[in-house]
């Protein structure tokens, strides 16, 4: 008698049959998707994000007939070409999406260099011919950067009529305000019109600092011969980096060593390079001040020796500060490179703020210090105004 197949054999046969059927169906869908995806390269140019760059159309080459005199493509090559086209297309689409993404790493990498936002300022200017008076009104500013370690600024505006730098007017200081409103009017009286049109209105926005030199935020200049002064004209202008060389102040190499058991941080001021020359002779006499701050209040100050006539000084001086672990999040270490001047007030070359809430480079150094206790973690820092 013929033996009937067992239930297990029938079940296995059914599973194999269904699996093969599904594989065949999926293969057909995959090829269909590939043809559809390759056709994306022919999208109209008006689609946002895709209009500025052509997508690769390598997949079309796989379907083209061979040129005369050339051997036909091998079957295996023909199978791999659509896969290559799809991979290129996906990579291209990924690149486009990264370009459109407001938080992409590429944007963050260039933010501090080519896309630095210094805010903008609104002002108006006009001329009274009967009274020979130029009127400048400083209205407000928006989106100013934070210059203080507390995450804010104390902005005010200086007003010049260049090339005259001796006579200037100033607004009031707006405390802890990144979107200040001044609405202050300034008059340059007894100013003949023929001289006014030879001047350049120059506005400099600064952050007021009670303990050291004011920090420049940005500037705006507008030649008055290009303005219709017969009536008050109102402008919104983006602030540009100040042209006093504040962006190239040099770099400082320092290390931080955190000892949690001793509740201390050791700051080692190692060396500096390419410091800005602050003296008439084209050099500087640099030294470094280190302030320990807690909740915006000064706790302790230490400083290095002065290095005479040197723009690339080597200090190698260490300073220890007692900092309980529970105070770390509210602690800031302010490092200021100064130029010693015997005859006048010492000049600030540049500053560094080290804490949880400073700039990206400073925060990285601070976190590396916490993550590697009892190790001296060294890093170069760009000095800032």
List its traits.
385 residues; calcium; calcium-dependent phospholipid binding; four-stranded antiparallel beta sheet; flat; cell projection; alpha+beta
Oligomer: single chain
Which sequence of strands runs across the widest sheet? 5-2-1-8
Order of helices and strands: HHHHEEEEEHEEEEEEEEEEHE
Put simply, the count of helices is 6
Largest beta-sheet details:
4 strands, antiparallel
Biased composition (Low complexity): 56-67
Membrane topology: Single-pass membrane protein
Subcellular location: Cytoplasmic vesicle, Phagosome membrane; Cytoplasmic vesicle, Secretory vesicle, Synaptic vesicle membrane; Lysosome membrane; Peroxisome membrane
Protein name: Synaptotagmin-7
Chain-wise SSE layout:
Elements: H1 7-38, H2 58-61, H3 75-100, H4 105-111, E1 120-128, E2 133-142, E3 155-162, E4 164-170, E5 181-188, H5 193-196, E6 200-207, E7 215-223, E8 233-238, E9 251-259, E10 264-273, E11 286-294, E12 297-303, E13 314-322, E14 331-339, E15 347-354, H6 360-371, E16 377-382
Antiparallel strand pairs: 1-2, 1-8, 2-5, 3-4, 3-6, 6-7, 9-10, 9-16, 10-13, 11-12, 11-14, 14-15
Describe the structure.
There is one protein chain. The chain is α+β, with helices and mostly antiparallel strands. The chain has six helices and 16 strands. The chain has a four-stranded antiparallel beta sheet with strand order 5-2-1-8, with no helix packed on it. Strands 4-3-6-7 form a four-stranded antiparallel beta sheet, with no helix packed on it. A four-stranded antiparallel beta sheet has the order 13-10-9-16, with helices on one face. A hairpin with a 4-residue loop joins strand 1 and strand 2. Helix 1 (7-38) crosses helix 3. The longest helix has 32 residues, at 7-38. The protein starts with 6 loop residues before the first helix and ends with a strand. Residues 29-115 have low confidence and may be disordered.
